[in-house]
Design brief:
six-stranded parallel β-sheet, alpha/beta
Length: about 375
């Protein structure tokens, strides 16, 4: 049994507490809750019948001896500092996405982890638990679709009203969130894109704020280039309604399409396009192929959240490998940093970018003066 503590008892932590109270994660005891809002914790304990101890001080919770692992659900900028404190206290760590705002702070956590190699340190990128994307990952690694030609993700169904940004004083600002849609909702898809297709080498981006009283972007368009010459496109929006969720991965031997996180279509071509283009005598003849379609039933976010927490518990118990390690979680952050710098400078940027450059440029934003 893993004794878990949760720090940062806001909206997302409440969702996780409900999953735990419903018995949807095995091998876990919710042993402690840490927040400056004692009344909020009291209400949750009464609502879900919890026996977890209350702490107002995070360091005291880590030193209490009543927890083996911690789930960090505080604002983004607090993630690395709190993860480092937990690692130094010998506590297993699952941190909410993104891993942090500044790469250097995350790297500081990574440097201290080897001192306690038995510790598990994961990131709550729960979309990696999706059956659809795990199926695609396995297919790409075992069968493949040839050389990567293009990957395109249209993820414009991340709709947020003004009430969302007003729900927390830290939302919608550079100082506390470190960014907008790329740093928050769409970081899930950026994580999946680099998990499935690899890290891009270059990004050209346009980030903008549309129809919302916030400082950060709620719309982003990224043009990506990979080392092999393949191109990527990432279009994200939190103001478009109803929006679209569609991923296409095109290779020289086929194409994979994922729609709404649940419908997967695989087109397997009869020949590699590069060879076909050289040998075909006709100017317009396309390559034939076969289509396979699959439907998965776990696109609901709560199913994937429960599966990701379960994976963390199983990893702590030595029953599984961690789904997304802290080091893995850096990939999407590096793409985000590059996209912001590209948008601010209006020019292509090679990845990864210097953390010093990002820090200097974000410090120029109005709310940090």
């Amino acid at each position: 049994m893993v004794r878990l503590g949760i720090v940062g008892i806001g909206t997302i932590a409440t969702d996780y507490i409900e999953l735990i109270a419903q018995g949807r994660i095995c091998g876990l005891e919710l042993a402690a809750l840490c927040s400056r809002r004692e009344q909020k914790v009291t209400e949750l304990k009464e609502k879900f019948g919890l026996k977890a101890r209350y702490f107002s001080d995070y360091a005291q919770m880590l030193a209490s001896g009543c927890i083996d692992a911690v789930l960090i659900c505080t604002p983004h900028g607090e993630h690395p500092r709190m993860a480092k404190m937990a690692a130094e206290a010998g506590i297993h760590i699952l941190v909410e996405k993104p891993v942090g705002i500044y790469e250097k702070e995350v790297e500081d956590v990574l440097k201290c982890l080897p001192r306690s190699p038995e510790l598990i340190c994961g990131v709550m990128y729960n979309r990696r638990a999706s059956k659809a994307y795990r199926f695609v990952k396995k297919y790409l690694s075992e069968t493949g679709i040839g050389k990567l030609v293009r990957c395109t993700w249209i993820i414009t169904d991340l709709y947020r009203t003004e009430a969302y940004y007003a729900s927390g004083s830290w939302r919608g600002s550079w100082g506390s969130e470190g960014g907008g849609i790329l740093m928050t909702q769409a970081s899930h898809q950026l994580d999946l894109m680099q998990w499935l297709c690899g890290m891009p080498a270059m990004v050209m981006a346009r980030c903008s704020t549309v129809d919302r009283p916030i400082q950060v972007e709620n719309e982003a368009e990224l043009f990506l280039e990979y080392e092999n010459g393949a191109h990527g496109h990432f279009l994200a929006s939190a103001h478009e309604c109803p929006g679209t969720n569609r991923l296409e991965i095109c290779g020289t031997k086929g194409r994979i399409t994922v729609t709404e996180d649940s419908q997967v279509e695989i087109l397997r071509m009869d020949a590699d396009e590069r060879e076909h283009a050289k040998l075909c005598r006709d100017s317009f003849t396309k390559i034939g192929g076969a289509v396979e379609r699959y439907l998965f039933d776990d696109s609901d976010n709560k199913i994937q959240q429960a599966a990701t927490i379960q994976n963390f518990i199983d990893a702590v118990l030595g029953k599984a490998d961690i789904q997304c390690s802290l080091k893995d979680g850096l990939g999407s952050l590096q793409i985000i940093h590059g996209a912001y710098i590209s948008s601010w400078l209006n020019q292509p940027v090679r990845l990864p970018v210097s953390d010093e450059i990002f820090s200097e440029m974000i410090a120029q934003k109005e709310d940090l003066k």
